[in-house]
Design a protein that fits this description.
Blueprint lengths: L1 E5 L4 E2 L2 H6 L2 H4 L1 H4 L7 E7 L2 H15 L7 E6 L6 H11 L14 E5 L7 E6 L6 H5 L3 H6 L3 E6 L13 E9 L2 E8 L9 H6 L2
Parallel strand pairs: 4-7, 4-8, 6-7
Antiparallel strand pairs: 1-2, 1-3, 3-9, 5-6, 8-9
Helix pairs in contact: 4-5
């Protein structure tokens, strides 16, 4: 896997990344603008295995000390690799069940035994009709509980309702088996500045 280097107005590509992917793809990193107050890290993975590995490490980082519910918005088009990423997350959290997207039932709950959090809520909002429908599932109570870790596929559909300290992960397919994984987070929340994020910012 290759890492891209952050700059003030976006991200600049390292020579290592420029050698690993075609020039027109590598230039994409300079076109992205980081929202005000957010910090950005971008990772290029070359296979499903590498994508799962990054997700596994990310999940383990999330299990550090915290005093609030952690909410992650997992974004990307159909086929971008969200299910593959969630498979790595499940492994990192010690979940033995197979991780599949709960498209038709909206969310699944998993008990966590190897993490500071007690439960993982895995949402898939692809078929969600309105935020009001989500509220009927006690979504606001779920994201307010500090014992919960919440990962939301298609979280961009309800971005205005997410907490300020949420983490945004966007996946994009570049070529066959090549993905760009972008992590954006607010650096003022210190427990988000994980070892994985520091590594991608080098």
């Amino acid at each position: 896997m290759q890492f891209e280097e952050e700059t003030r107005n976006g991200i600049s590509c390292t020579e290592e990344v420029l050698r690993s992917v075609p020039q027109f793809l590598a230039k994409k990193c300079a076109e992205c603008v980081v929202p005000h107050g957010m910090k950005k890290s971008t990772i290029i993975t070359q296979s499903d295995m590498e994508t799962r590995s990054i997700a596994e490490e990310f999940a383990r980082e999330l299990c550090g000390e915290t005093n609030a519910c952690r909410v992650v918005s997992l974004e990307g088009e159909l086929g971008a690799g969200k299910t593959t990423f969630m498979q790595g997350v499940g492994k990192g959290l010690g979940i033995r069940q197979q991780m599949t997207s709960p498209t038709f039932i909206i969310f699944r709950v998993f008990d966590l035994t190897k993490c500071v959090y007690k439960r993982l809520y895995h949402f898939d909002l692809y078929r969600l009709k309105s935020y009001e429908d989500l509220k009927t599932l006690e979504f606001e109570d779920i994201i307010a509980d500090p014992k919960n870790l919440v990962i939301i596929e298609w979280g961009d559909m309800i971005r205005e309702h997410l907490p300020k300290n949420y983490i945004q992960i966007k996946l994009e397919g570049l070529l066959k088996n090549v993905r760009e994984i972008t992590i954006m987070y607010n650096p003022k929340f210190k427990n988000q500045n994980s070892k994985l994020q520091r590594k991608t910012e080098k």
